[in-house]
Automatic annotation (TrEMBL):
Gene source species: Caerostris extrusa (Bark spider)
Keyword ATP-binding carried by entry: yes
DNA2/NAM7 helicase helicase domain sequence ranges: 14-101
MF annotations from Gene Ontology: helicase activity; transcription termination site sequence-specific DNA binding
SUPFAM superfamilies cross-referenced by the UniProt entry: P-loop containing nucleoside triphosphate hydrolases
Annotated protein name in UniProt: Probable helicase senataxin
Record key words, sorted: ATP-binding, Helicase, Hydrolase, Nucleotide-binding
Residue ranges occupied by any DNA2/NAM7 helicase-like C-terminal domain in the UniProt entry: 110-267
Keyword tRNA-binding applies: no
Length: 277
């Protein structure tokens, strides 16, 4: 009997806490001028109720950041009758949405709404203003030269303070290392031909040159990520080296980025396929 009574009291308290939590959340929403949320959470019951019972005449603007990475259904779910203006912010020259379904890709759902609208408007020769950032603060000018030339019409410039940050860096801006022909390390020591061993050696020697540098490794697929991550985690000095695929690295920053172009499985060449194949 005591246990049943205790359970009932806990349930009552739980329901009471949930009631007050909902009241508190509604109060916070009503008193907020700016609400930060994800696309999925913008459609939860609490947000829906807030939009339905909003103040009379209240104008709601929806701003979607990194919209070039969002599929069209994802964008549509944040819209409702109360949203008066949709503002999409993104860069269609960067990675498209991550879509694994071949069926969806064949029907054109790998393209973001931002890209679709942008190209449609350009095709209609509509004279609308375009706002683009032409100055980057992340990488050295020797690295940004490539995307500037081939993606941004040579309009992308490097901020002066960025060049100053790397003025005394002992490393060259870009190093291409061919492990098929180079069988010795950067300090002359022999290295195992296995690419994971080569990567371990490269990371170790980079940290000797710049001890406090953050290092990121970009790989071609999840199998490569697992392989390299397990190898690096076995070395205590390299446990902070982060390995991931390119779509998961977008938006993140590291002092040094290593692009591991070797595919660990000669049988899996899916990363080379064109879209829709």
């Amino acid at each position: 009997m005591d246990q049943q009574k205790s359970l009932k009291e806990k349930n009552l308290l739980s329901n009471w806490d949930s009631f007050y939590q909902i009241m508190y959340e509604n109060t916070v929403l009503r008193e907020s001028n700016v609400i930060l949320t994800t696309l999925n959470d913008s459609m939860n019951p609490l947000m829906n109720e807030f939009f339905k019972t909003g103040q009379e005449g209240q104008r709601i603007y929806c701003i979607v950041d990194d919209a070039s990475r969002c599929t069209e259904p994802e964008i549509l779910q944040c819209l409702n009758t109360e949203v008066k203006r949709l503002i999409l912010v993104g860069d269609i020259q960067q990675l498209p949405p991550s879509v694994s379904s071949t069926y969806a890709i064949n029907w054109g759902f790998k393209r973001s709404m931002l890209e679709r609208l942008y190209k449609f408007i350009r095709k209609q020769n509509c004279s609308i203003p375009e706002f683009a950032l032409t100055e980057q603060h992340r990488m050295r000018s020797q690295i940004s030269h490539f995307p500037s030339k081939y993606f941004y019409g040579q309009q992308l410039e490097t901020a002066p303070d960025t060049e100053k940050r790397f003025m005394y860096c002992p490393l060259k801006p870009v190093i291409v290392y061919d492990i098929l022909t180079n069988i010795s390390g950067m300090d002359g020591r022999d290295m195992d031909g296995d690419e994971t061993s080569v990567l371990t050696c490269i990371c170790s020697q980079l940290l000797q040159v710049v001890p406090n540098a953050s290092i990121g490794v970009i790989v071609t697929n999840q199998k490569a990520k697992s392989l390299y991550s397990s190898t690096l985690s076995g070395n205590s000095a390299l446990r902070n080296v982060k390995v991931n695929t390119v779509e998961n690295y977008q938006g993140k920053e590291k002092d040094i980025i290593i692009i591991a172009c070797i595919n660990p499985s000669s049988e899996d060449q899916s990363f080379l396929r064109a879209e829709g194949e």
